[in-house]
What we know:
InterPro entries: ANGPTL8 (IPR026614). The chain has helices at about 1-15, 20-30, 35-150, 150-160. It is mostly helical.
Amino acid sequence: MKLLVLLLLVASSHSFPTEPTFAEQQTESRLRFAALDEVRLLANGLLQLGHSLRDFVQNTKNQINAIFQKLNIFDKSFYQLSVLASEIKEEEEELKKTTVILKANNEEIKSLSLEINSKVEDIINERNHLRSQVGGLEEKLSGLSQSLLSAEQVVEISTLK
């Protein structure tokens, strides 16, 4: 701030030139060069300004580096998420295919089950029919056997049954 005020004073003193007189020309020749204290003051101000600018640039550079690090982390995370999303989509497609296959297998199993059930019912009906026929034959056989066979042969036939 001091430097700015000093620069403004120096600039304003040279902005309105007038015709110098002889006495003024002599003092002007002496004043042409700045005093050593003024030069030191200006140099110190410029040095402080340089240090401030260097610190500002360093802080800005650190902030930019931090932003780039965060962007790199974000990019890595985004890449990982996109890889996971593509894997999930692939697995979803596989599951859909498997579901279609399982539905087809399930329908096939249902039709086979219905077919087996109807055959089992047919077999049970045939078995019952055969039992009734065998029962009828046994009665006829026992009736015939009692009249044609001896008691020992009837006992033998009963044991065979």
